[in-house]
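Database export, one record per block. Field names are fixed; values are copied verbatim from the stored entry.
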Amino acid sequence: MAVISKKKDEHFDLRDYHFTETPKAVRVLFRVLSYGFLILCCLAVILPLLVVLIGAFKTHDEYITTNVFTLPAVPQFQNFVTAFFNGNVMKGLLNTAIILVISCFGTIITGTMTAFVLQRFRMLFTRAVKAVFMFAALLPNIAMQVTVFQIVSKLGLYNTIWAPCILYIGTDIVSIYIFIQFLDNISVSLDESAILDGASYPRVYWSIILPMLRPAIATVLVIKFVSIYNDFYTANLYMPSDDLAVVSTALYKFIGPYSAQWEVIFAGIIICIIPSLVIFLFLQKFIYSNLVAGSVKE
């Protein structure tokens, strides 16, 4: 880190600058503050997970009477059995997997098609659609829930697994803008060459655009997976039946009007974390490499 001072000259020239070394005390202070901030960020992430992990092995009386960081006298593995079977976690994981597959596949197809039309065909209609999408993205979701709920109910989709799937697919405006951003880096000359060779626009989309959007697709899949896996509101509102419980709502039955079995809930949370953790560990290199792909033009 250096402090730059400039000589009096009207023209910019690197030779007109001379560098003076930053005082050692300032550099040490800056490094200490940087590491201190990073440590606080790590604690903010680790401490809640530590509380959940410790609480999952306690009895109900231990959880009520002891500190959250106090280790259990005897680890209670029965909490995991209760959460898995009585909490219907297996059914929740299966329903969540079905919703994830349908929603992610639908988002990729509709999102890439919409982005292809909006980015490649520049006309008054596409500009109007972009403006409408931007306006819709600024509206709070809670302000439209009454209307959305009435539409879902009239279509006969209430309390079915299709309700959240359609909502996740139809309201994902952010994914469309991600695809548009990546399409800006794909040369239009590729489309023109394919059209001159006799390819139609659907053929251009399937053979050229979609394969080249793989980094963007990976990015959208990561965002979509996290969003759906953690979503409690949509599943709880549109799928109240116990048979349609998902990961985020399966453990809700352990919360009563006067008390909650937090040790069982914590055990269920750990069970629900395991699938996403395993997927992340296996795909972390692919995820990191694709999250930054397309961000720099060369």
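Remark 1: The radius of gyration is 26 Å.
Remark 2: The chain is about 65% helix and 5% strand.
End of record.
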